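Hi there. Long-time user, first ticket. I'm pasting a complex I've been working with (about 488 residues overall). I'd like to know whether the download I got is complete or cut off, because the file seemed smaller than I expected. Thanks.
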Amino acid sequence: MIDKELERSSDAHWRTALPHVSVDCVVFGFSNSSLNVLILKIKNEKNWILPGGYVFKDESLDDAAKRVLFERSGAERIFLNVFGVFGDINRSENYFAAYKDDLWHKQRFITVGYYALVDQTNVTPIPDSFSESCEWVSINQLPTMVMDHELILKKALKTLREQLSYKPIGYNLMPKTFTMPELQSLYETILGQKLNRGNFYRKIMRYDILIKLDEPRKGGAHKAPHLYRFDEEKYKKALNELSW
Amino acid sequence: MIDKELERSSDAHWRTALPHVSVDCVVFGFSNSSLNVLILKIKNEKNWILPGGYVFKDESLDDAAKRVLFERSGAERIFLNVFGVFGDINRSENYFAAYKDDLWHKQRFITVGYYALVDQTNVTPIPDSFSESCEWVSINQLPTMVMDHELILKKALKTLREQLSYKPIGYNLMPKTFTMPELQSLYETILGQKLNRGNFYRKIMRYDILIKLDEPRKGGAHKAPHLYRFDEEKYKKALNELSW
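Hi, the file is complete. Here it is re-exported in full:
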């Protein structure tokens, strides 16, 4: 990062943002049987970073997360949820210790972790002025991350896995129509383990959120697999229902 | 609240705590078929408040939550988990607006919500110097709460209910030994709805966390019900397992 640019941004931050609070976003996407996460490579810095930033004095925390994600990555209209807060001493202070005159970045930040599931095809990653790239990277091939960002990312993944066990997932991640093996592949990728086909079918059907289409997928296979799509209304209902 | 006391605490806060960040604790207890929460009544204030406070410059966020809960309520060695963050504009600023010279309390606070499940018999509520009482109150008979504390409490309850659908609950809430109807009563109280006895039995047994005792409960009933206790090791394992 260029010192001068950092200093300028530091001044602006003191005027406009709340000290000590930041947000970091973990955005998951699914593509070609791979669970990916949106991360940035800062200029002149060898490690990668989550899209993150500060909270303006005149915006809510949730709005800050949305804005930060958009500014850093170009991702818009994304529904973000808090999954954790990271507030250890020296989690951020040490990282910027070298920048002696930059009091903004050197303060202690408690960061709020937001996560989202998105259709990768709807997001065109755009790096901000501090970053040389913004990319989808497989969670199985993560580069070294700055500060505690790997820990933050892993906590988000744990939350996603837990959510999978009591809520349907897939509406934002799957294409409009899909086969049962494709949906199972999403679940297996998130969980990082193979699932029994019969069990998966029974459990998914119990949610009652799928509509079986009359037409199988065209072309290709000898015996074309059935296509499904989500029943939006039932899906939304299932999200709010408890399984007891 | 007495102005002078508030002012003194305000000065101390600026020296020792991080501005803009606070913690609030929602501590659930279970007693006589009632799900209760630990809340405080501030002196000279008609509404109730969650045990909450600020984060010292030299302590982690998690440690702050533990300390605050102990100072406000006397509750010690409680395992707290983050369930949400509340960061709307004016959620706290308006509340202290009347205290014109108290800049600490009038700043914008983003509060981190922590929740815990405890055995009520292990907690002896002790009010701090600002409070006239600290009590277990049934979630069905909550008094009016200050600021957004009712919202915070409801979000904690929602999290608890969600947790119930994919993790066992009860280890910290039930006495050492209990009957199946007693455990079912805990689940029903948290969910706020009756459950089918057979379904409950099957689902609980699937966790494989209970040990059936040889001796039924002594005295009383014509046909004494079986007693159970939790298998600590299996219970801990089940907490970390995913049901897919």
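A couple of notes from our side: The beta strands of chain B are 17-31, 34-42, 48-49, 52-56, 81-86, 110-118, 131-138, 210-212, 228-230. Chain B has a mean pLDDT of 88.
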